[in-house]
Design brief:
Radius of gyration: 20 Å
Strand order of the largest sheet: 2-1-3-4-5
Shape: elongated
Structural class: alpha/beta
Order of helices and strands: HEEHEEEHHH
Number of helices: 5
Strand content: 5-15%
Helix content: 55-70%
Distance between the termini: 23 Å
Length: 182
Amino acid sequence: MIKYLLASLVFTVLLFLWSGFTQMLPWGIPTAQKITVQSGSIDSALPNLITLQPGTLTTNDFDATFINKISTYTTDKTFSWIVTQPLRTGYSSYFMKELVTQFFVGILLTLLLVFTKTYKTQTRMLFIGAVGLLAWVATYGQLLNWWALPATYSIGIGVNLIFGWLAACFLVSRFILTSEKK
């Protein structure tokens, strides 16, 4: 039982770090258009920040500005990233939720490795890769269709997911949940 918990925790740490790193890849945060209509002080340190007058995007200019792009939109009281939420000044809750998310992913990947322990490492990695591809198509394939996410973003996220899972599973299967077949 201890090695299953250890495997889940190792997955959590590896996938948390990987998800943070991959945000910096060209299809991560850099793809987002940054727009603000805040009337107060604006963080001018954000690169490529588009500053508009308050009320500007309540006109027909809204569609022309946002169409076919992943954007962030900041007002005096809200921050929007695909969905609108209250403006947050700290990001600790995001990190905590990401840790919890990756912990649950780690538990599920641990289960997959336990279920495949009688197979060679290569076969286990093929299985994990197939499950990763399935997860990507089932989520980002739909978002590509229904939300019209840019293909480069969707494909990039899929590469991140599959590569991250394969790398983490390889390490865990090599050192913690080893294959019974060599």
